Amino acid sequence: MSNFGDGVIGRFEFYILNFEFSGVILSRMQKYELTLFLDGKTTPAKKKSQREIIEKIIQGVSGKVGTVEDWGEKTLAYKIGKSESGNFLFFPLELNPQEVKPLSTKLKMEESIVRFLIIRKDIDGKKFK
Questions:
Q1: How is domain 30-120 classified at the CATH fold level?
Q2: Distance set, CA 75 to CA 3, 18, 92, 99 (Å)
Q3: Is the pLDDT of residue 13 over 80?
Q4: Residue 77 in this model has a pLDDT that exceeds 50
């Protein structure tokens, strides 16, 4: 019996080819942490609206947002642009690894975000070093 003439192998190969071209993504969701730095002069209303915008952006790239933490206003060690203080927001996320770069691009386009940092977490919930 030939391996190449066997119908089972032929069907199996067909399914693999069909699956590769079907556009289905095999990767699973990874845990990430997003920390945002907004200008220190940001009003509470502006901070709330910015938080909602960021949540919509994350959901737009098929991500899930955990409980958002408002770390409040902190004095910076040095000026960043014209800011001497900043408001920090922390977002625990679940994203497909392919969606991190598009998320980063969309966050760069937001004018009110001074800086941001996206960190992938380990499976145990520990940060990578």
A1: Alpha-Beta Plaits (3.30.70)
A2: 69, 55, 23, 32
A3: no
A4: yes
More confidently predicted of 11 and 70: 70
List Cα–Cα distances, 64 to 26, 39, 92, 105, 125, in angstroms: 18, 25, 8, 18, 16
The ranges assigned to domains in the chain are: 30-120
- Cα-trace Rg, the chain: 21
Beta carbons within 10 angstroms of residue 100's beta carbon: 18
The model's pLDDT over 29-65, given as tens digits with 9 standing for 90+, comes to 899 999 999 998 999 999 999 999 999 999 999 999 9
| Phi/psi of residue 56, nearest 5 degrees | -65, -40
The C-alpha angle with vertex 4 and arms to 2 and 7, in degrees rounded to 5, equals: 90
Separation between Cα atoms, residue 18 and residue 20, nearest integer Å: 6
**Calpha distance 113→115 (Å, rounded):** 6
Amino acid at 19: F
First to last CA, the chain: 53
